[in-house]
Amino acid sequence: MTDSELIVDLRGRLIETLDDFWDAVSEPCGLPEWFGRNLNAWSDTIETRGISEVIDSHDLLTVHVDKLGLFGGHQQEADILAGIFDGEQNRLVVHGPA
Q1: How would residue 3 be classed by pLDDT, with cut points 50, 70 and 90?
Q2: Under a CB-based contact definition with an 8 Å cutoff, are residues 59 and 5 in contact?
Q3: Contacts (Cβ under 8 Å, ≥6 apart) of 67
Q4: How far apart are the C-alpha atoms of 39 and 77, rounded to whole Å?
Q5: Over 70: is that where the pLDDT of 65 sits?
Q6: How many CA atoms lie within 13 A of 98 on its CB side?
């Protein structure tokens, strides 16, 4: 049996704020309209599951982003967001310049 993986590739998309991140992941992750758009809601969605049928239908979630904007330095929100990803069931991959 192989694990199914949901890959959300946001490279090439400028993400300056958490709102930009929520806008970018909402559709590919199947987030409901009522999704809280905050770090606690995201944590529940990717760790506890039960909020997004799309995420729940995969064993792994991998989100790819560019090392720009929100992810370009040591912004506290980006660090907290990155910390929510456990690196096993949920991965955030930050890509540097090509």
Answers
A1: confident
A2: yes
A3: 94, 95, 96, 97
A4: 9
A5: yes
A6: 3
Exposed / middle / buried, residue 27 (Cβ in 10 Å: 0-12, 13-18, 19+):
exposed
Q: Which amino acid is at 36?
A: G
Q: Kindly calculate the radius of gyration of the chain based on its CA atoms and give it in whole angstroms.
A: 13
88 neighbors 39 (Cβ within 8 angstroms) = no
| pTM of full prediction above 0.85 | yes
Residue 66 backbone phi and psi in degrees, to 5: -85, 150
Residue with token string 């069931």: 89
Q: Are 23 and 78 in contact (CB under 8 A)?
A: no
The angle subtended at Cα 82 by Cα 4 and Cα 15, nearest 5°, is: 95
From CA 21, how far away is CA 2, in angstroms rounded? Answer: 29
